[in-house]
Specification:
By secondary structure, the chain is mainly α. Helices cover about 90% and strands about 0% of the residues. It starts with 6 loop residues before the first helix and ends with a helix.
């Protein structure tokens, strides 16, 4: 079976990592109040990654059952 690339999953995990790094830097420089939004974006990106992965896994299982 040819391995597929999952660009949306990669996009969301990279976005989450970048938001987390920015959140830590803002937290150190300006305090937690200035970094709250970036922490929220990190959680949203992580949830979107997990949701997209879940959809892909379900789709792969459905395709296996049809074969």
């Amino acid at each position: 079976m040819k391995q597929k690339k999952h660009p949306m999953e990669i996009l969301w995990i990279c976005t989450g990592i970048m938001c987390f790094i920015v959140a830590i830097i803002r937290n150190v420089k300006f305090g937690f109040d200035e970094a709250k939004a970036m922490y929220v974006f990190t959680v949203i990106a992580a949830l979107m990654f997990l949701w997209r992965r879940h959809l892909r896994k379900n789709e792969e299982e459905k395709d296996k059952k049809q074969q």
